[in-house]
Amino acid sequence: MRILLPIIQFPPDVNPTGVLMAQLCEGLTACGHEVSVITTFPHYENFRIWDEYRGKLVKRGQERGMEIVRLFTYAPGKKSMVNRLISYVTFNALATMAGVFSRGRWDVILCPNGSFFSGLTAWLVGKAKGIPFIYNVQDLYPDVPIRAGQLRNRHAIAALKAIERFMYRKADHITVIAPSFRDNLLSKGVPAEKISIIPNFVDTEFIRPLPKANSFAQQHGLSDKFVITHAGNLGYVYDLDTMLNAASLLSSQKDILFLIVGNGVAKPALEKKAHELKLDNVRFMPFQPRESLPWLRASSDVQVSLYKNGAANDSFPSKIYEIMASGRPLLASSDGDSGVATLVKTAECGLCVKPGETEHLAEAILDLYRNSALRDTMGRRGRRYAEENHSKQVVIDRYHDLLQRICG
Question: How far apart are the C-alpha atoms of 156 and 158, rounded to whole Å?
C-alpha cells in the first residue's frame, strides 16, 4: 500500500508527534508499505529554519526508507500565536500544491493534526487524487488554545470551530489517542463508527530502565540530587508555575532539584519567575539530542506531567508513555476525570494531584522523596503497563489493520 503522510514537523525535528509518526511509518515500511512524507525544513526547537536549509523552497530525498519532500515554512524565530498561525497556513498551502501536482500515486493519506489546517490539505489532496484520508487527532484544536486562554476572539473561534467540523466531516476515518478525545468528537456530532481509539506508543527498547549513575547525570551534576524533571514542550497547557511555587516551598530541601528541559512559548516567563523567586533549586536546560533522552529520563528520580485546569481533557502527551517505559514514577496534575488521571490510577504508576494546588504538589514530591520503595514499585508498574499496552509494535499492527480496512 502506498501511504502519504503530510506533517508539519518530521525528524530531525524533535517535535514529539513528528518523532512518533516517523517511528510508525518505519514500522509500516517494515510491513511492506511504501511511505511518502511531505513536511517542512527542520525548525521546531527554536522556531527557525536550520541554516543549511535557509533560502530554499523545496528539497526532495530518501530518508529512513521513505520519500521525503521538505518545504519552506514561515518560522521567524519568535513563537507567538500569530506567527504559528502564519506558519501553519504557509506549510499547508505549499503542502497542498506539492501533493496535488505531484506525479506520485498513493492509496491513502494518513494525516496527523500537528498543524490545525492539515486536515484541509489532506482533503484537497485526497479529492484531487481520488483517495481516502485518515485524520489522526493528536490534540483537540481549537479547544487547546481556547481553554488555555490564548484564543479569545469570538469570530476567530467560530471560524476555527467551523473548519474543525468540516475536517471531521470530510475525513474517511478518524483516529484519536484517548477515550476522552472520542467523547469530545461524539459531542461534536462525529459518528461513532467513524472513530477508532489508537493510543500513542513508546519504543520500549529505546526508552528503558537504566541506572541513575550514568555519564549524562555526571556531566550535568545530577548524580547527587533528587531530580524532579519536566522534559518536553513548555506550552501554555502545562502548569509549570505551580511547579516553581512548589520548588519555592521546598527550597530548604537542598537535595531536591527541579529540572525543566525543553523550549516553548512559556519558557521566558518561567525563567523570569524563577529568577524573581531566587530559586537556586531550579535548573533550565534546552531540548536534548534524542540519543540523550533515555539517559535524561534515567537521571531523574521523579518525572512530571502537570496540566492546568481542564487542559488534560484536550491533550495527552506521548512523553507520559516514555516516563512509564523509563521505570520512573509519574507525578501528574490533572482533573480527576481526564485520561491522564485515569491512566495513573489504572497503571498504578505514580501520583496525581489537582492542578494549581502548590501545597499538595509539594507534599506529593516529599512523599516520593522519602519513600524509595514506593518509587521503585511505581516505576516497575509503569514499565510493565507500557510494555503490555503501548509498545510500538502493538500500535503499528493496529494502524496496519486500519489501513487495510479503509482501503478495502
Answer: 5
Q: What integer pLDDT is reported at residue 408 of this predicted model?
A: 75
Q: What's the pLDDT tens digit per position in 21-34?
A: 999 999 999 999 99
List helix spans (H) across 37-193.
81-100, 118-129, 143-147, 154-170, 179-187
What is the spatial distance between Cα 66 and Cα 63, in angstroms, rounded to a whole number?
Answer: 5
Distance of CA 154 to the CA centre of its chain: 27
pLDDT at 51 over 80: yes
Quickly tell me which residue has 489532496 as its cell.
125
How confident is the model at residue 87, as a pLDDT? 96
Of 347, 350, 267, give the one whose Cα is nearest residue 305. 350
Using 50, 70 and 90 to split pLDDT, how confident is the model at 6? very high
- pLDDT at site 114: 83
Q: Is the peptide bond before 317 cis (omega within 30 degrees of 0)?
A: no
Whole-angstrom distance, CA of residue 36 vs CA of residue 38: 7
Let me know: does 113 contact 142? Beta carbons within 8 Å.
no
Cβ(67)–Cβ(104) under 8 Å? yes
